[in-house]
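tool_call: predict_structure(chain=1)
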Amino acid sequence: MYDDDGYQSYCTVCCGGREVLLCGNANCCRCFCVECLDILVGAGASNSARNLDPWRCYMCQPLQPYGVLKRRHDWSMKLQEFFINDNGQEFESPKTYRAVPAEQRRPIRVLSLFDGIATGYLVLRDLGFKVDHYIASEVCEDSISVGVVRHEGRIQYVHDVRNITRKNIEEWGPFDLVIGGSPCNDLSIVNPARKGLYEGTGRLFFEFYRLLSEAKPKEGEDRPFFWMFENVVAMGVNDKRDISRFLECNPVMIDAIEVSAAHRARYFWGNLPGMNRPRCASGMDKLELQDCLEHGRVAKFGKVRTITTRANSIKQGKDQHFPDLWLPDVSNMGRGARQKLLGRSWSVPVIRHLFAPLKDYFAYEEDLDLHPLASSNHEAEEI
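tool_result:
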């Protein structure tokens, strides 16, 4: 969870602290409270840290004990296990489908709810899938403009998800893939005025659940059907459990930092094959911010700590620099509008990782000359 300056909102050790010290490493977002330093590292440790400029936190310093603090060699894996583990709820494994013989595979039919800038369509096309039709529910006119301009009218927009009826689903379907990520404003614990799952925009999750139920194959229909729901990791425990209870599965936590130049940890619920499989960067993934910038531009940071809807949230470090990001123009869209679209978009490399196994079920262009995905900054290229 990050604050307005891109740093963690709370102490790395105790998740609290009234006064915190920020790490001076431009690629680190951690902070430690003075109480933890004085108790765990040693009396006066906080004063010593204050006198250092820059001060590097204990996760960035050499691997050795600092008082009773010692960095684990497997800390990253343990952190992921903490978010992935949910022993409080047990669900049946999702139904698995046999791979469809190549000659029987047909183009995929997609229903995308809260579509944003059509990252789902972009990834399907870049993976080479033949898309029969792609129905997108989206109310943001800027997002729709991006989809219309970039994909030349190949997406059918149907506007507000709340106005979609069972009859619509029957007319547009049947669907092979249902995807969506409802707004996180009222779910994220970063928002002190959040209303939770059952009020405000949080309730839109139930629209996804309703339409997912309508789109699922009827009794006796034996065909591959897949779905995916995405939302923020920093949500209340009860909200996460309620979402899991309705969707009847636990989420997988994926951070885009593993395959891109930006931190973006998200929960994904669904029945896509291999959602839990290890993630590794491909040769075309851009893992450093410098790799994403145009020739002649120099990045001050290795990774973007967070991509949010607020312009001041991308200020990084004690000296409050803005990272060098360039957002191409679409329909004379202003910088602020484009920033908001990025804050609400999905990470292309992560969605590519999740969608790739669908090639065993649906038709795709085997000899298609694919344009390499720009990976971590592909969302920016879209707008």
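agent: The mean pLDDT is 79. Proceeding to next step.
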